[in-house]
Amino acid sequence: MARYDQIAEVLRERVACGELAVGDEVPSADRLAREFDVGRDTALKAVRLLRNEGVFALGRDCVVRVERRTGTIAEEVPGAVVEVPAVSVVKARMPTPREREELGLADGVPVLVVCLGDVEEVHPAAGTGIRWKRT
After folding, report:
1. What residues make up the domain containing 100?
2. Average pLDDT value for residue range 103-121
3. pLDDT digit string (tens) for 38-72?
4. What is the tally of structural domains in the chain?
5. Which of 56, 84, 108, 121 has its CA 20 to 30 A from that of 100?
6. Burial of 4 by CB count in 10 Å (0-12 exposed, 13-18 middle, 19+ buried)?
7. CA dihedral 56, 42, 3, 105 (to 10 degrees)
């Protein structure tokens, strides 16, 4: 496993256990480089990877974006489960700039597109569950 992947995994674990909470500032690349005894570029690559996954968001500072999850999606985020007819097709893709703005998504966060005939519904992939209705 690449060193930046190892650092990213440690940071994911820190988010999962609550050591890094939503809104917390992500440690600087210099601090991570010292902590993991790697170059600054390696530390930046780990942070960039987590930004692309939607774990971190870049605003004025780089901050933790996702919440620690326990239980089922339906229990954690009421209303985040989208029920779709069994004949629907669900695709994942990157959002258009307009969709990113409308949904308030950070760079690198994909969307789920529910297709039923000519109709498409777009939902943020992070935190959204899909439940197929039984017919």
Report:
1. 73-133
2. 82
3. 999 999 999 988 887 778 877 667 778 755 444 44
4. 2
5. 84
6. buried
7. 20
